[in-house]
UniProtKB/TrEMBL annotation, chain A:
Superkingdom of the source species: Bacteria
Subcellular location: Cell membrane
The organism of origin for this protein: Cytobacillus solani
Protein name: Iron ABC transporter ATP-binding protein
SUPFAM superfamilies (UniProt xref): P-loop containing nucleoside triphosphate hydrolases
Major subcellular location class: membrane
Single GO BP term: iron ion transport
InterPro entries in the cross-refs: AAA+_ATPase, ABC_transporter-like_ATP-bd, ABC_transporter-like_CS, P-loop_NTPase, Siderophore_ABC-ATPase
Automatic annotation (TrEMBL), chain B:
Membrane-related topology note: Multi-pass membrane protein
Organism annotation: Cytobacillus solani
Locations listed in the record: Cell membrane
Family: Belongs to the binding-protein-dependent transport system permease family. FecCD subfamily.
Name of the molecule in the record: Iron ABC transporter permease
Membrane spanning stretches: 39-59, 104-123, 130-155, 175-194, 238-257, 264-284, 290-311
Protein's UniProt keywords contain Isomerase: no
GO cellular component, one term: plasma membrane
Gene3D superfamilies documented for this protein: ABC transporter involved in vitamin B12 uptake, BtuC
Pfam families listed in its UniProt record: FecCD
Length: 255, 318
C-alpha cells in the first residue's frame, strides 16, 4: 500500500502541492485529475522519488520511500514521465530490456528474457521489436516505454499523462492494457489523465487536485457528477450515461 | 553485437600497427638508445589517449550532450594557473619546475581540488542541475584564463618562453616515473569504471528513466564528474592540455559503433584515441619531419570536426 501523508512542495514561495494526503488502494487504477497546474505531475513525481517533498512523507508498505534502497524500490514502484526523448539510439527490445536492470544489473538471465518477451507480447510489439525507436510513431514509441515498465515487474506502475499526443485508437488501446494489468496481473496503476472521460470509464478511483490542494478523493462514481466536477473545474458539465459508462459532455459547457 | 566485436578487433589491430610502426620504423643511432625512449613516448600517448577518451565519453553521458568535453569545467585553465603561478612566483629555475614530481603533483592536486571544491562543497552536484554546474565551471575557467593572461603579461619574456612550452601538449619529454604514476591512477579509475559500466548505460536514458530503474542518479553524476576530472587532470599534468581531442574520438566512436553500451563505446574511443595520437605523432615525426606539432594538427582537425558536428546538430534540431 502507498500512503501519501501531508505532502507539500514549493517551487520558490509558491506551493505547487499543499498538504495532500491520499491512500492508493492496491489492485486498482487511480486517476489523478484536475486543471492545468493543479500539481498532479508533481505529486506523482514525489511518490516515485523523482522529486523530494518539502514536508510530509510517502509510505510504501509502512516504510518511508526515502529510506528504501533505490534498487529495491525500483522492483516495487515504476514511473514513466511524459517526455520520452532519448539521446541514444536503441531498438525497442533493447529499451524494454532496460526494464530488467533492477534485477539483472545489465546481465540478462533466461528469466529476464522471459519477462521481456511477455512485455513485448502484452504491448503488441512483436513485429517491431528489432526496430529502432526513432523509426516508430508516437503511439508505438509510447507502447515501447510502457512495455519497459511492464518488464520491470513492479506492483505499482505510475504513469504521467501516457495518452499525451496519442490518437483515440492508441489511447483506448493503452487504457485497455492498463485495465488488463490490474484485472489479470493484480498490479496497481496510478495515472495522471487530462481527458476526464478516460478517467471516468477506466479508473476505479479518482483523486482530484486543484491549485495544489486535494479537492476530491473517492471511487469513480462519486466523483463523476456535475456537482463534484463544478468544484474541480469551475465548469457546468452535464453527464450522460452510455452503456453503463458516465460520459462528461463538456464540449459546449459555459467556461 | 558480433559486428561490433569485429569492429573493435579491427581498431585494436590498427592501433597495434601504429604502435609497432612508431616503435620500430627507421631507428637510427643505436637501438638501445632510441627504443626505450620511443616506448616511453608511445606509452604516454596510450595513457593520455585512454584517459581523455574515457573521461569524455562518461562526461558526455552525464551531460547528455555530445559536443561538450570535460575541459569546459575549467580544468585546463586551472592547469595554466598552476604553471603560470609557479613561473611567476618561483621562476623557471626553482625546484617547482626542475623537480618533475613536484610539478606533476602540484598540477594534478590543484586540478582535482578545483573540481572537488566546485562540485562537492560549493555547488553540490547532487543538489543543483548539471547545466548550472557547467556554466559556473565555464565562467570560473574564463576568470582563471584572464588571470593567467594578466600574470603572463607581467612575466619576464625569457621565462614566458619556457612557460609556453609547458602550456602546449607534448609527448617528447615525458618522464618515465610520472608515467608509472599515471598508469596507477588510470588503473584505479578503471576498476571504479568497470563497476559502473552498467549504471552508465542506464544513465544514458536520462535522469527520470534512470531513477525509475533504481539508479541513485544525482550521486552518480557527482561521482562521474569527479572521475572524469581525475582522468583529465592526470593526462593534462602528464603531457599538457589537448582541447578538441576527446570530442573527436568520442564522437567517432559513437558513429562507428552504433550502440548504447559504454563498455564498447569507451573501448572504441580509447582505441581510436591511440590510433590518432600514435599514428599522428608518427606522421609528425616521419612525414612532416617535426615541422609541426601533434597538438596543432589535432586542434586543426578537431576544430573542423567540431564545426561539422555543430552544423549536423543544428540541422537535426531544425
Amino acid at each position: 500500500m502507498i500512503e501519501i501523508k501531508g505532502l507539500t512542495k514549493r517551487f520558490g514561495k509558491k506551493p505547487v502541492v499543499e498538504d495532500v494526503s491520499v491512500t492508493i488502494e492496491p489492485g486498482t487504477i487511480t486517476s489523478f485529475i484536475g486543471p492545468n497546474g493543479a500539481g498532479k505531475s508533481t505529486l506523482l513525481s514525489m511518490v516515485s522519488r523523482l522529486l523530494e517533498a518539502d514536508t510530509g512523507e510517502v509510505l510504501l508498505d509502512q516504510g518511508n520511500v526515502k529510506k528504501w534502497k533505490s534498487s529495491e524500490f525500483a522492483k516495487r514502484v515504476s514511473i514513466l514521465k511524459q517526455s520520452n526523448y532519448l539521446n541514444v539510439r536503441l531498438t525497442v527490445r533493447e529499451l524494454i530490456a532496460f526494464g530488467r536492470y533492477p534485477y539483472s544489473k545489465g546481465r540478462l538471465t533466461a528469466e529476464d528474457e522471459k519477462f521481456i518477451d511477455q512485455a513485448i507480447e502484452y504491448m503488441n510489439l512483436t513485429d517491431m521489436q528489432d526496430k529502432f525507436l526513432d523509426e516508430l510513431s508516437g503511439g508505438q514509441k509510447q507502447r515501447a516505454f510502457i512495455a519497459m515498465v511492464i518488464a520491470q515487474d513492479t506492483d505499482y506502475i505510475l504513469l504521467d499523462e501516457p495518452l499525451n499526443n496519442l490518437d483515440m485508437k492508441h489511447s483506448v488501446q493503452i487504457m485497455k492494457i492498463l485495465r488488463k494489468l490490474v484485472d489479470e496481473l493484480g498490479r496497481t496503476v496510478v495515472i495522471v489523465l487530462h481527458d476526464i472521460n478516460f478517467a471516468s470509464v477506466y479508473s476505479d478511483r479518482i483523486v482530484a487536485l486543484k491549485d495544489g490542494k486535494l479537492v476530491k478523493n473517492g471511487p469513480t462514481h462519486e466523483i463523476i457528477n456535475s456537482d463534484a466536477l463544478r468544484e474541480i473545474y469551475d465548469m457546468d458539465i452535464p453527464i450522460q450515461e452510455q452503456n453503463g459508462c458516465r460520459i462528461c459532455v463538456y464540449f459546449n459547457s459555459h467556461a | 553485437m558480433r559486428k561490433n566485436s569485429t569492429k573493435l578487433i579491427f581498431l585494436a589491430v590498427l592501433a597495434f600497427i601504429c604502435i609497432l610502426l612508431y616503435a620500430f620504423y627507421d631507428i637510427k643511432g643505436g637501438f638501445d638508445y632510441a627504443f626505450p625512449r620511443r616506448m616511453i613516448r608511445v606509452s604516454a600517448m596510450v595513457v593520455t589517449g585512454i584517459a581523455i577518451a574515457y573521461s569524455t565519453v562518461v562526461f558526455q553521458t552525464i551531460t547528455h550532450n555530445r559536443i561538450l568535453t570535460p575541459s569546459v569545467m575549467g580544468l585546463d585553465s586551472m592547469y595554466e594557473v598552476v604553471q603560470t603561478c609557479i613561473y611567476f612566483f618561483a621562476g623557471s629555475m626553482s625546484v617547482w619546475v626542475l623537480n618533475k614530481y613536484l610539478n606533476f603533483g602540484a598540477a594534478i592536486i590543484a586540478m582535482v581540488l578545483f573540481a572537488l571544491i566546485l562540485y562537492r562543497f560549493l555547488f553540490r552536484a547532487d543538489k543543483h542541475p548539471i547545466y548550472l554546474l557547467l556554466l559556473i565551471g565555464m565562467i570560473l575557467g574564463a576568470l582563471l584564463g584572464n588571470f593567467v593572461t594578466f600574470l603572463q603579461v607581467l612575466i619576464d619574456p625569457v621565462e614566458y618562453l619556457s612557460l609556453q612550452n609547458r602550456l602546449f601538449a607534448t609527448f617528447s619529454n615525458v618522464k618515465a616515473d610520472l608515467l608509472y604514476i599515471s598508469v596507477g591512477i588510470l588503473f584505479i579509475a578503471f576498476i571504479y569504471g568497470y563497476r559502473i559500466m552498467g549504471k552508465l548505460d542506464v544513465m544514458s536514458l536520462g535522469r527520470e528513466n534512470a531513477m525509475n530503474l533504481g539508479i541513485n542518479y544525482d550521486r552518480m553524476v557527482m561521482n562521474v564528474l569527479i572521475l572524469s576530472s581525475v582522468l583529465i587532470a592526470t593526462s593534462t599534468a602528464l603531457v599538457g592540455p589537448i582541447t578538441f581531442f576527446g570530442l573527436i574520438v568520442a564522437n567517432l566512436s559513437y558513429q562507428y559503433l552504433v550502440t548504447y553500451k559504454h563498455s564498447v563505446l569507451i573501448l572504441g574511443a580509447s582505441l581510436i584515441a591511440i590510433i590518432a595520437l600514435v599514428g599522428g605523432q608518427f606522421l609528425v615525426e616521419h612525414v612532416f619531419e617535426l615541422r609541426t606539432t601533434l597538438s596543432v594538427i589535432i586542434n586543426f582537425i578537431g576544430g573542423i570536426y567540431f564545426i561539422y558536428l555543430l552544423l549536423k546538430e543544428s540541422r537535426a534540431a531544425g
